[in-house]
Amino acid sequence: KGSDDMNLRLASDLTLDSIVDGPGLRMVIWTQGCVHHCYKCHNPQTHKLDGGIIVNTDYIIRQIKKLKLHRGINLSGGEPFLQAGALSQVAKSAKEYGLDVWCYTGFLFEELISKANPLYRENIKLLDYVDVLVDGKFIYSKKDIRLKFRGSSNQRIIDVKSSLEHNKVILKYEYMEKELGLVR
Fold this sequence. Notes:
Layout: E1 7-10, E2 15-18, E3 26-30, E4 53-56, H1 57-66, E5 72-76, H2 84-96, E6 100-104, H3 109-112, H4 120-127, E7 132-135, E8 156-159, H5 160-166, H6 173-179
Parallel strand pairs: 3-5, 5-6, 6-7
Antiparallel strand pairs: 1-4, 2-3, 7-8
């Protein structure tokens, strides 16, 4: 175990081949533990903070190295930002292997980057390696099965690099405009 290796609590082993959690073929990391408890969450088994399995980041990075046809990885859950420090190592490795990184969170982008947040430094460390953030709690009354890559219309698909540069949310409009019929 190297000095940079850390443990992660996952809900299950990795999903190596997903085509529904973002564009292209993706590996999904399902984190265990969530504080949001969204009504009608599609992953309620991930809520318990002490559930799931413990996996070393080195194991996940070895799996990332083996990916051949994948466009990227997803950090999902559960709530990934409860384990931002360890996930930043995983995301950094994915970027080094030419993969994009998507992350799903129940927190709002503004909450994650607030300097008042006690986990601000760890959040920023992870966000530095995330390309796209889907933020916001799942709200059942705003559920729309026509939406791409998110469960409810309040959730935003955010371009993280641009948002950090401008210190405000910049949306990834190519997905949202198609949904609204604005692009053919």
